[in-house]
Amino acid sequence: MSPTKVVPIPVMGRHSINAYLLLGRRPVVVDAGTPGSGGKIRDQIAAHGVDPTDVSLIVITHGHIDHFGSAAELHRLTGAPVAGHIADLGPYRSGRAREPYLPTGPMGRLMARSRKLHLKAEPLEPGVLVRGETDLEDFGIDARIMPTPGHTAGSISVLTGRGDLVAGDLVANSFMGLVPGRPANPPFHDDPLHNLASLRRMLDLDPTRLHVGHGTPLEPDRVRRWAAREHRRLTRLAAAGRLPTRTETEAV
């Protein structure tokens, strides 16, 4: 199978919120942006010379409204099934992210006050339920879905055969992509230490680049150095009882 090409689809700003078009034998879309973004994503797919009705799958990386907000609309526009992890079925079926959001820093505390984060998206029922590592060859690309829980219980990433990791909110660029190339936490994590463990597990697979939901692609070595510092910081916070974490019961 030919190598999979990763094409960013800006949903908000140049890099603030990204979806991705994965090009192989057939196209696959990763993430669906905020509510009302379906038409914009469809038009950008077409602008890259792809018939939107040829899309074989829409992969949603997790149950936050800026990633699954237009999944139901995009499903109608393309006819492609939606893939999502079973652990985030609650948000997908209700159209609401789990609340309260757990901020990772000042940016998250500020954003948690935004009414847009508390809107209800159109509910959806994923046609492809992800429970573990899932090969995407049958959908036309040389890639596999990798469970990467922590940001949410059902967070997933997509790793292509040539090493591109489409990582959702596993990591972000600083200030929601405003500082390109600088690794940082996204505004929220349900379980920061679990998320960091997922990130380090993906880094152990030697990806060539990390394509993230917020910002430009990140270089793995820079992310590794940041992750080592972040591990020390989170460990200190956890030891002091100052690391907010959503319990497994709350995550259901």
Task: Give a written overview of the molecule.
The protein has 252 residues and is an alpha/beta fold. The chain has helices at 38-47, 65-68, 71-78, 89-94, 106-111, 174-177, 192-203, 220-239, 248-251; strands spanning 5-12, 17-23, 28-30, 57-59, 82-85, 128-130, 134-135, 143-147, 156-160, 164-168, 172-173, 179-184, 209-212. The protein is globular and about 50 Å long.
Layout of helices and strands:
Elements: E1 5-12, E2 17-23, E3 28-30, H1 38-47, E4 57-59, H2 65-68, H3 71-78, E5 82-85, H4 89-94, H5 106-111, E6 128-130, E7 134-135, E8 143-147, E9 156-160, E10 164-168, E11 172-173, H6 174-177, E12 179-184, H7 192-203, E13 209-212, H8 220-239, H9 248-251
Parallel strand pairs: 3-4, 4-5, 5-6, 10-13
Antiparallel strand pairs: 1-2, 2-3, 7-8, 8-9, 9-10, 11-12
Helix pairs in contact: 1-3, 7-8
Properties at a glance:
five-stranded mixed beta sheet, single chain, alpha/beta, about 250 residues, 9 helices
Quick rundown:
By secondary structure, the protein is an alpha/beta fold. The protein contains 9 helices and 13 strands. Helix 7 runs antiparallel to helix 8.
Q: Which shape, going by the Cα principal axes?
A: globular
Structural category is: alpha/beta
**End-to-end span in angstroms?**
38 Å
What percent of residues adopt helix (DSSP H or I)? 25-40%
Query: What's the multimeric state?
Result: single chain
Q: Give the tally of β-strands.
A: 13
Spatial extent as radius of gyration: 17 Å
Low-confidence stretches: none
Chain-averaged pLDDT: 95
List the total number of helices. Answer: 9
Largest sheet: 6 strands, mixed
Q: What is the spatial order of strands in the main beta sheet?
A: 1-2-3-4-5-6
Q: In what range is the share of β-strand residues?
A: 15-25%
* Strand/helix succession: EEEHEHHEHHEEEEEEHEHEHH
